[in-house]
Structure formats: structure tokens, C-alpha cells
Specification:
It holds the Pfam family DeoRC. The chain is of the alpha/beta class. Helix content is 34%, strand content 21%. Helix 1 packs across helix 4. The longest helix has 13 residues.
Length: 261
């Protein structure tokens, strides 16, 4: 992980309270304790944070601005993304719903493509764990669908709930199947524009036994961002017919099932 990524994650982990413990940093960031201490020293030298016993806090005169930043993630806001490639996303969501088995527990990650699954789940009597308030709203009219959400802070532009202090915020729901989205997909793996979102999705993957990636074909162009997982950690990719032959081979060579909606 690059220095800039660690700095961004440290500042986001401080959260609404303006404080993060060193223990939480160690649990959330893949770096040695010595590296994290140097990162904190560097941020303190810049005047962004102040080292305190057991962790770090934001400098008082910058705290308000930084806390505002915590509630916003890098990437396209949900309301701008929902209608992009809408027909393709609806087809992908419909195809993904057929992969669900009646009565099982699943995780639906927040996203404009994963949201399109919801209208096709009403008769399956699923238990759904989701970090998306949009998904919650779509599932509420379904009396047979049970809904669980994690703890954490609400990020308004994406309307998702993320734990930002490194703590375990997921309820103890057995949901071995995960349906997730992405900002980009490439040979490097599945990527998100924001390192905090990438870390949250990594936690979901670690809980799942089976992972389906739902992305329209435009997500295979110009990949960049924070890597969530390698392609070989996926079980299924559901996309549309616009995927190029090159990218289709990339998915299949990784040993991942490709479904064209």
C-alpha cells in the first residue's frame, strides 16, 4: 500500500469522533507498527493530526473540515451513477438474482448494479445483509425478505454504511454468498476509487465462501484505484454483452465463471 493510501485511510479511520486508536490502525491497515508510527509522525509534522496516548486525533483547528471529508468517499456519487448504462445494469441484476437459492442468506454490497437484483428477490424468502440504504429501501416492501445492516457511519453520497474505526461492525449473520460491485476491473483485480470502501469490501469477501462481481462492461476500461481483491478470488462475474474479447478471456483465464446478461 502506498504512502498516500495509508494517509487517506488513517484520516478516514479517525471518523466522526476525531480519534483513532493505534490498535485500530494495526487491525485495519496492512503495514508494520513501525511504518504506522512513521506515518503518524509525518501527518503530525504536517499539522493534520496530533499524537496522543494510545492513538491520534485531528488537530482542533482542522477537525471540522476533516470530519466533513470523512462522510464523503472518492468516486462518482450514487445519484449520478444510477442511470448510467441503466439497461445493462437491470439485465445484470436480473441474471444475478437467478443465482440465489430460496431461503438462503446473502450479502448485497452497495452499488447501482447490485441494487438491480432487489426487484427479483421477493419470492425467495432470503435473509439479506447489506450496507446500502438503497438496497434496504428496495427490499422493505418484500414481507418474506429479512434484512440486516452493519453498524457504522452513513456516507450520504453513496447512501452506504461503513465502519471506519477498524472495528467489527457486521452483525453475526451467516451469509456465505456475496454479490458486490466495483468501480474498475482489470488484470490487477477488482478496484474501488476509495481506499475506505475497498477495505470495507475486503472484510465482506473475508466472510464469504462464494463471491459474484456485478459490473457493466464499461467498468473494464482504464482501471485505477485501490485493489479490493484479485480476480482469482471471484467465483462469478456477471456483465453485459459489451465486454471485449480481451477482457472476457482475462476473466476466464483467472478461472472465474463469466455470465453475459
Amino acid at each position: 500500500m502506498h504512502v498516500e493510501e495509508r494517509d487517506s485511510l488513517i484520516l478516514n479511520l479517525i471518523g466522526k469522533t476525531g480519534f483513532v486508536s493505534f490498535k485500530s490502525l494495526e487491525a485495519s491497515i496492512p503495514a508494520s507498527p513501525a511504518t504506522l508510527r512513521r506515518d503518524l509522525d509525518r501527518l503530525e509534522a504536517k499539522g493534520v493530526i496530533q499524537r496522543v496516548r494510545g492513538g491520534a486525533r485531528l488537530v482542533e483547528d482542522e477537525a471540522a473540515g476533516e470530519r466533513g471529508d470523512v462522510q464523503s468517499l472518492a468516486g462518482v456519487p450514487f445519484h449520478e451513477n444510477i442511470d448510467r448504462n441503466r439497461a445493462q445494469k437491470e439485465a445484470i441484476g436480473r441474471a444475478a438474482a437467478t443465482l440465489c437459492k430460496p431461503g438462503e442468506s446473502i450479502i448485497i454490497d452497495g452499488g447501482s448494479t447490485t441494487l438491480q437484483m432487489c426487484n427479483h428477490l421477493a419470492d425467495l424468502h432470503l435473509q439479506v445483509l447489506t450496507n446500502s440504504l438503497h438496497v434496504v429501501s428496495a427490499l422493505l416492501p418484500q414481507p418474506g425478505t429479512r434484512i440486516a445492516v452493519p453498524g457504522g457511519s452513513v456516507f450520504r453520497e453513496q447512501n452506504i454504511i461503513l465502519g471506519i474505526g477498524g472495528e467489527e461492525c457486521m452483525p453475526r449473520v451467516y451469509a456465505p454468498r456475496l454479490f458486490m460491485g466495483a468501480a474498475f476491473v482489470g488484470a490487477q483485480g477488482v478496484m474501488q476509487a476509495d481506499v475506505v470502501l475497498a477495505a470495507a469490501e475486503r472484510q465482506m469477501i473475508d466472510r464469504a465462501e462464494w463471491v459474484a462481481l456485478l459490473v457493466d462492461s464499461s467498468k473494464f476500461a482504464a482501471p485505477s484505484g485501490s485493489v479490493v481483491c484479485g480476480l482469482d478470488e471471484l467465483d462469478v462475474v456477471v456483465t453485459d454483452a459489451g465486454i471485449s474479447d480481451v477482457h472476457a478471456r482475462m476473466i476466464e483465464q483467472a478461472g472465474v465463471e463469466l455470465i453475459i446478461a
